[in-house]
Design goal:
The structure holds two protein chains of two kinds. Helix content of chain A is 34%, strand content 26%. Chain A has helices spanning 35-43, 46-53, 112-115, 119-129, 144-153, 155-160, 166-170, 188-195, 219-225, 241-261, 279-314, 394-399, 414-421, 426-432, 442-447, 456-466, and strands spanning 10-13, 16-19, 29-32, 59-70, 77-84, 89-90, 102-111, 140-141, 207-216, 231-238, 274-275, 324-330, 332-341, 344-353, 356-357, 376-379, 387-392, 403-404, 436-439, 469-482. The chains are: A alpha+beta, B alpha+beta.
Chain lengths: 483, 251
């Protein structure tokens, strides 16, 4: 396999680098990054992955990567690729193991001064209420029937069972569920792995963060969305837990044999795929939709428990506290969408792995309440760093199939992070910065230290400059719970 | 895949217990809220489920759920319980390699084998490099290394025996399938194994007996959540003194 030194980059502008079509690439590659980032990116093996993705049958326009690009399984993290549904392939590596890993943002009517003095109480309450960490067990017990309903209807199921309000659906991407979920094609193993994990936060880079708005960039939009400086907010970052991991694993197992059988030539085994309109492809999409719905339900339940904890601590109802959902979006999903390619509108399957959707105003797949401003895009920073809220743009629709970055992306390996953490207490350092952290695991705390990640502000800066999404507001954490 | 399995209890019991038959009335695998309430081992009947008003049942504390009936399994003669040496989080991923001979020592029982591996530096994921004298030991070490990343093996008792076999296209795929199976047993079946003995290993199949117990959140410490075993950088090769393998996990 050619090394990175063989890859030629052409600078398109300050934010974009093109990899021209060579060899058996079907389309060129485009990486969104600035000069400084490209220094690191060239060393990482991820540009090679951008090249590899360009070999997928049915891929159209470009093999894209967002500024938080880093090496992943088959597709790079931060990768975006659209394949024609007619004759193109679906690749589970383009969705990721943590299917519909995503995040949601809640606002409150509380101000920083009201919450800061009680942050320890609040975070402790959340930590008690919300199971987190490896091996954490769910508090929910679903019968088979309920489980199937949940997998088919996602967040709707949660709300019907008392875990939230009807309005929450209007602020969730695609109404909080993906149609076409087929519980019958999900393996017994995935059920077993997932059954104890519904309503758990997870571990690794998942978190629940209480913060506040510290900067507003687009006052009009921020106003419309109900954001103001010093307003306390909550961000929940979680996914489909073991259920999604097992589904991806099972699918890769099947597809690794399938693509060979079909005679598809791929430079990387991990891009294993199947034709979208084939039984194997449909099976994956059916199972993936179940995992997508599982994750929506998970975040809805976590949000409900967050509301309950706030109620207990502040002795007011969630309505009085204004605990409203601003938006929920996923950044590891493949969706059927209509896009303009070569002047024609065609249906494609857009793979976004570590990339979020960023649709513009007027788009019919943006929930009604955001149709005049454009879709909110929540970019969670990792533990202890800023998070951002952006808005989708027309340029994204034209250039990146309506996609943008998803977060920061790792820079340091876990071992490196552990070594860097030796003798330091990450929790204490964060506390000195004014962030109170409760984590289920000390090791995770070290591995997830802020230095292990790229700077999310830089990443967001690039997408903002490129015009594929525009900064609306910035959040600073004051309390975090981590698995 | 042949499975012979005795389920065991995570708790120590005083004195001998009468041997109980595994399985339960109605047969089939246990499902939550599936066929009735908890099984009463004394009467041999299921208790009726509480009246449901529909929707999920939310439990107060952790999910104790329904308990399986306990079955006494003969303790393997050479399994010895080790003193628990709580390792601190910072050194969670370092390990001291034991020689293969140490592991196979007789007389006084082999100490439960400590996995022989090192972690590979990788930006977002976690890799391991395993070495061993024989191919069988290589696979055993890889399996133990996986469990070592998942939990503190020194707290795991060998009270349950579990045997199965696997097939794959070639040796490297077999290694992946082996580790995938163990991962599934940990996260899906809530089993953790501290001792693995491969009875037979060919280019495309293996059969193994595993000793361990059911995961007990109160006793066992969880470390890293491993999502899956990947094919990236997969390598199984001969080394100067035996065999070596590289595997990367998605975490």
């Amino acid at each position: 396999m050619p090394g990175d030194t063989d890859i030629k980059f052409e600078k398109l502008d300050d934010c974009r680098w093109m990899i021209p079509k060579t060899g058996r690439m079907r389309v060129p590659g485009i990486i969104y990054a600035d000069e400084k980032m490209m220094v690191h990116i060239r060393v990482d093996k991820s540009p090679q992955q951008v090249v590899n993705v360009a070999h997928l049958p049915g891929i159209v326009k470009y093999s894209l990567a967002m500024p938080d690009i880093h090496w992943g399984y088959g597709f790079p993290i931060g990768g975006v690729a659209a394949t024609e549904t007619d004759g193109g392939v679906i690749s589970p590596g383009g969705v990721g193991y943590d299917i519909n890993c995503g995040c949601r943002l809640m606002t409150t009517t509380l101000g920083l001064d009201e919450v800061r003095p009680r942050i320890k109480e609040l975070i402790s309450g959340l930590f008690r209420k919300i199971p987190s960490g490896v091996g954490s067990r769910s508090k929910l017990k679903l019968s088979r029937v309920e489980e199937r309903k949940m997998l088919q209807t996602g967040a709707r199921w949660a709300i019907e069972n008392g875990y939230g309000r009807q309005e929450d659906l209007g602020a969730t991407e695609e109404g909080g569920f993906m149609p076409g979920a087929d519980p019958e094609v999900v393996s017994q193993r995935a059920y077993e792995r997932g059954k104890d994990q519904l309503g758990t936060l997870g571990s690794g880079n998942h978190f629940l963060e209480v913060g506040y708005v510290d900067e507003i960039y687009l006052p009009d939009i921020a106003d419309r969305w109900g954001l103001s400086v010093n307003q306390v907010t909550v961000i929940i970052h979680s996914g489909s837990r073991g259920f999604g991991y097992q589904i991806c694993d099972d699918s890769l197992d099947v597809m690794t044999r399938e693509y060979v059988r079909l005679g598809i030539e791929l430079p990387d085994k991990q891009l294993a795929c199947a034709y979208i309109n084939s039984p194997v492809g449909k099976q994956y999409l059916g199972a993936m939709a179940c995992a997508v719905n599982y994750a929506y339900t998970n975040r809805q339940v976590l949000m409900h428990w967050t509301r309950e904890t706030f109620e207990q601590v502040f002795k007011k109802s969630a309505e009085e506290l204004g605990l409203d959902l601003i938006y929920d979006l996923g950044h590891n999903v493949a969706r059927r969408e209509k896009h303009m390619v070569d002047g024609k509108e065609i249906e494609v399957c857009v793979h976004r792995k570590g990339a979020a959707r960023a649709f513009p105003p007027g788009h019919d797949r943006v929930p009604e309440k955001y149709r005049d401003t454009g879709q909110p895009v929540l970019i969670p920073g990792d533990m202890g760093t800023h998070s951002f809220l952006l808005v989708g743009t027309q340029k994204a629709l034209e250039d990146t199939f309506g996609s943008t970055c998803h977060g920061a992306g790792r820079m340091m390996s876990r071992k490196q992070a552990m070594r860097t953490a030796q003798g330091r207490s990450v929790a204490k350092e964060l506390e000195q910065k004014g962030i109170f952290v409760l984590s289920a695991s000390l090791a995770t705390l070290a591995e997830e230290m802020p230095e292990a990640y790229k700077n999310v502000a830089d990443v967001v800066g690039v997408v903002d400059k490129a015009g594929i999404s525009k900064k609306v507001a910035r959040f600073t954490p004051i309390g975090v719970i981590k698995g | 895949m042949k499975k012979s399995r005795d389920s065991g209890s995570g708790r120590r019991r005083e004195g001998p217990r009468p041997h109980k038959r595994p399985g339960r009335p109605g047969g089939g695998s246990w499902q939550p809220g599936g066929r009735g309430g908890p099984w009463n081992p004394k009467s041999g009947h299921r208790l009726p489920l509480p009246k449901k008003t529909g929707g999920p049942i939310e439990t107060k504390k952790g999910a104790k759920g329904y308990r399986r009936p306990t079955v006494k399994v003969p303790f393997p003669e050479d399994a010895v319980e080790r003193d628990i040496d709580a390792r601190d989080a910072a050194s969670a991923h370092d390990s001291t390699p034991l020689s293969a001979n140490e592991r196979n020592m007789n007389g006084g029982g082999a100490a439960l084998p400590r996995p022989q591996y090192e972690t590979l530096d990788h930006t977002a994921d976690l890799g391991i490099r395993v070495t061993a004298g024989t191919r069988e030991e290589l696979f055993e070490n890889a399996g133990l290394a996986l469990f070592d990343l998942l939990t503190d093996l020194s707290r795991v008792r060998a009270t349950t025996r579990f045997a199965f076999s696997l097939k794959a296209e070639n040796l490297e795929a077999l290694l992946v399938q082996w580790l995938r199976e163990l991962l599934y047993l940990f996260f899906g079946k809530k089993m953790v194994f501290c001792r693995l003995e491969i009875a037979e290993l060919t280019e495309d199949s293996l059969s193994v007996t595993c000793w361990g117990e059911r995961v007990d959140p109160e006793r066992h410490v969880f470390r890293t959540e491993i999502k899956a075993v990947t094919y990236h950088g997969l390598r199984v090769a001969r080394a100067e003194q035996g065999w070596t393998a590289d595997v990367i996990f998605d975490i």
